[in-house]
């Protein structure tokens, strides 16, 4: 690196004052300052771009390792599931020699969801709670419901 101290800067300034002259020196100094600023910004942009590309390469490598691990896990799961399915098929298969004739003709009923007994749930609520919440306890026709909620006529 170039070692520029205060004495060297003073020497460069004195030479520039003599060569360029006192009238043009401020304009030249401004131009040199703007060019140095642009050069510094360009160098910092290049550094940032290099850092971004290095991070991107690291992320790509990390992505490849994660994808490889995922493929290995998927392969092991598929191999284990196929082995499990084979074992399950072997365990659930009836041998013709060992199975009873009644066991092979036995019909297994289809699964039926137990459901919820909503009548029982409605019946467990206390009556005072039903009346406060407005739960209907008796069947009403639509016209009766409308008449119930119709405002009463007021005669003055």
UniProtKB/TrEMBL annotation:
The superkingdom of the source organism is Bacteria
Q: Which GO terms describe its molecular function?
A: protein transmembrane transporter activity
- Record's GO cellular component terms: TAT protein transport complex
The record's listing under InterPro entries reads: TatA/B/E, TatB
* Compartment list: Cell membrane; Membrane
Entry's NCBIfam families? Answer: tatB
Q: Which PANTHER family match?
A: SEC-INDEPENDENT PROTEIN TRANSLOCASE PROTEIN TATA, CHLOROPLASTIC
How this chain assembles, per its entry, is:
The Tat system comprises two distinct complexes: a TatABC complex, containing multiple copies of TatA, TatB and TatC subunits, and a separate TatA complex, containing only TatA subunits. Substrates initially bind to the TatABC complex, which probably triggers association of the separate TatA complex to form the active translocon.
Family, according to the entry, reads as follows: Belongs to the TatB family.
Q: What name does the UniProt record give this protein? A: Sec-independent protein translocase protein TatB
């Amino acid at each position: 690196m170039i070692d520029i101290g205060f004495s060297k800067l003073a020497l460069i300034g004195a030479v520039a004052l003599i060569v360029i002259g006192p009238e043009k020196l401020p304009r030249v100094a401004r131009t040199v300052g703007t060019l140095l600023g642009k050069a510094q910004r360009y160098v910092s942009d290049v550094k940032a771009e290099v850092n971004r590309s290095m991070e991107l390469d690291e992320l790509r490598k990390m992505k490849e390792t994660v994808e490889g691990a995922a493929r290995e896990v998927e392969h092991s799961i598929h191999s284990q599931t196929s082995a499990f399915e084979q074992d399950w098929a072997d365990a659930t298969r009836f041998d013709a020699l060992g199975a009873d004739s009644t066991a092979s003709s036995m019909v297994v009923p289809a699964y039926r969801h137990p459901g919820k007994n909503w009548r029982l749930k409605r019946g467990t609520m206390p009556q005072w709670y039903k009346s406060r919440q407005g739960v209907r306890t008796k069947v009403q026709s639509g016209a009766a419901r409308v008449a119930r909620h119709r405002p009463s006529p007021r005669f003055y």
